[in-house]
Write a structure and sequence with these properties.
By secondary structure, the chain is of the alpha/beta class. The chain contains 12 helices and 27 strands. The strands form 8 sheets. An 8-stranded mixed beta sheet has the order 2-18-12-15-11-3-6-7, with helices on both faces. Strands 21-22-24-26 form a 4-stranded parallel beta sheet, covered by helices on one side. Helix 1 runs antiparallel to helix 2 (41-57), helix 3 (88-95) packs across helix 8 and helix 7 (224-230) packs across helix 10 (321-330). The longest helix has 28 residues, at 5-32. The N and C termini lie far apart (71 Å). The mean pLDDT is 91.
Length: 492
Amino acid sequence: MEKPASTMDFQHSSDQASMAGIEGKMKSHNEKAPEKARMSEMELAGFNSLYSRYLHERHSKREINWELIQSPDDKMLRPYADLEAPSGEEEAALLKKLAVCKLNGGLGTSMGCAGPKSAIEVRGDTTFLDLTVQQVENLNKKVPGADVPLLLMNSFNTDEDTAKIILKYKNADVTITTFNQSRYPRIIKDSLEPLPVTHNGFNKEDWYPPGHGDVYAALYNSGLVDSLLAQGKEYVFVSNVDNLGATVDTKILKMMSECGSEYCMELTDKTRADIKGGTLISYEGKSALLEVAQVPSDHLEEFKSVTKFKVFNTNNIWMSLKAIKRLMTSGEMALDIIENSKEANGYKVIQLETAIGAAISYFNDSCGVNVPRSRFLPVKTTSDLLLIQSNLYALQHGCLVMNPQRMFASTPVIKLGSGFKKVQGYNARFGSMPDVLELDHLTVSGDVSFGKKVVLKGTVIIVATPGSTIMIPSGSVLENKVITGNLHILDH
C-alpha cells in the first residue's frame, strides 16, 4: 500500500534536513580526523552524493514496470557462436587499444586466508594474481608493441599488501598499475548517522568499499582514463580477479569495434544454482540489468525460472574509455543503490553500494554476449577451488583449459561441507586431488577425508553422521555411491 502524500512529504523534508546536517558534520568531522582516517575531497563528495540520493529515493523510488520488460533480441544479446575471430593483423591492432582491469578489493577471509583474495594459491603455488599476470604477459609477447597494461582496483583492505606482492612482477612483460576504489563510512541503521561516532585513530570496521560500481569514478578520478587515452587505449576489460574464466577474448573486442558499442556485458546460461544472478532485459527500448532486488515479490518465481530469463551477468564487462570519460564529466551516471545490512562495532549498520552492471543503460549501443560457461569460473568457496585444482583443467599461459578427456561440456556440481570451508581444513582433508573427469555430482558432509589417487564418477554422496568419521582410502574408485555412517581404513 502506498504511503499518503503528506507522509512522504514529511519524510522527504526530514531527510533533506538530515542531509544538510550530515554534510556539515562530515566536513567538520573529516577535518579533525587523523590522517589515515581522513577522506579525500573526491571521496567526501562521492559519499555525500550517494547518501543524498539514498535519502531522496528510499521513500519514493520508482518501481520497475513488469509489463515493460522484454527479452533482448539477437542484436542486444548476441550469441557468442556468431562472433567472428579477427585476423592476426586485426587482433594486433585491437590489443594495442586494450587495457585489462581486475577488481582486487576483496579479502580471502571467507576462505580462512589472510590478505587479498588474489594472493590465494589456486593451482600448485600459483595465485589468482600470478595467473592474471601470466595471461596479460602472454598477450604482450604474442603481439610485440601491444603493451596491454594491467590495472588493479584495490580497496583500502588490499592496497598495502598488493603493493608488496606486485614487486615480484617487476621483470614481467606487463605494466601493472594500482588504484583505489573509494572508502566510505558505514551508516548506523537507526539514526542514519555515518560512522565513526568519534575519531579515535583508524578503525577499519567503520569503513567499507562501496561495491564494484565505484570502478567508473575510481578509474576516472585516479587520472587513469586520461592517461590510457593519451597512450592510444580505447577499451578496458573489467572482471573479478577470482573469475579464472575471464580472459581477454578478441572476438568480443572485434564485435564492439565494428558495431560501435560502448559497453558489452558477458552473460552465460542460467542453471538452478544461478537463479539470483542479474539478467539482461530490454526496458523502454534500452539495454538494462534486472537484479533480483528490483523484482516485485509476485514475479520472483518467474525471475528465478530458466524459461523466461535464461542468462545471467558474469561481471565480465568491456567498455569504451571515451564513454567513461564522457559520463564522468557530465555527471549523469546515477547507478541504482544497493542497501547492504551489516553489524560493526556493536551497531546495526548499512552500506550503500553500486554494481558495475547497472551502468549498461547509460552507454550508447550497449549490448550483451551470451558466452560459454567456461568464461565464468569464479572461486568463491573451496567447492569451487576443488573444481579448479582438479584434473578437469590444465593451464596454458595462465588460462584454464578444459581437459579434452572430459566427455561432457558441463562441469560437475560439488558441495563440500563445513569441515572444508577454510583452505587449511580443505587441504588437510585431501591426500591429493581426486580424479573427477567422470564426476557429475559430489556432496560431502561431516568429518570426511580422502586418501591419495581417489577416483570419483557419476553421483557420489558421502555423509558422516555426527560423532562419526569417514576416511576414503587411497586408490578408491567410487561410482554412483552413497556412503554414510562411519568408515576408517588405514594403510597397512
